[in-house]
Amino acid sequence: MRSQIDLLATITVLGALEQAYFALQVIYARRKYKISPPETTGHPEFERIFRAQANCSEYFPIFISLLWVAGIFFHQGVTAVCGLLYLYTRFRYFQGYAVAAKGRLGPLYTSARLLWLLLGLALAGLLAHFFLPSSLAWTAALARPLQLLGAW
């Protein structure tokens, strides 16, 4: 059982660590610019860091839900690669937003595409599960070209 979800669990823990990192950046910015909670306005750099953290936190439940559904019903390896790419793009989003608001746009669009991809994988896996008699063979056949490329 564990080997069927180990990659998903790893990506989930990495995501939680990333969220903790973002939260710590807000704490450091509050100290640096002397902005006490519950204030959310002040120095422009603090506001960008605060917004970046809030935006990443808002999308995290959607990401985790899609990660697990796609990983269980489609293919764990393909989903884990998408999840790792998503976490990387959110990290780039956070970094870009902290510097300048326009710096968030490229990673924002990429992370949105990855969420749509995870949604598609989750839907494909669920449809195969409910409507195809041997959905495991179907998803394995779909994932085979990626395995040949050495994606995991």
UniProtKB/TrEMBL annotation:
GO biological process, one term: leukotriene biosynthetic process
PANTHER family: LEUKOTRIENE C4 SYNTHASE, MICROSOMAL GLUTATHIONE S-TRANSFERASE
Broad EC category: lyase
Name the UniProt record assigns to this protein: Leukotriene C4 synthase
Annotated metabolic or biological route of this protein: Lipid metabolism; leukotriene C4 biosynthesis
Enzyme Commission number(s) from the entry: 4.4.1.20
Transmembrane domains' residue ranges: 62-88, 114-132
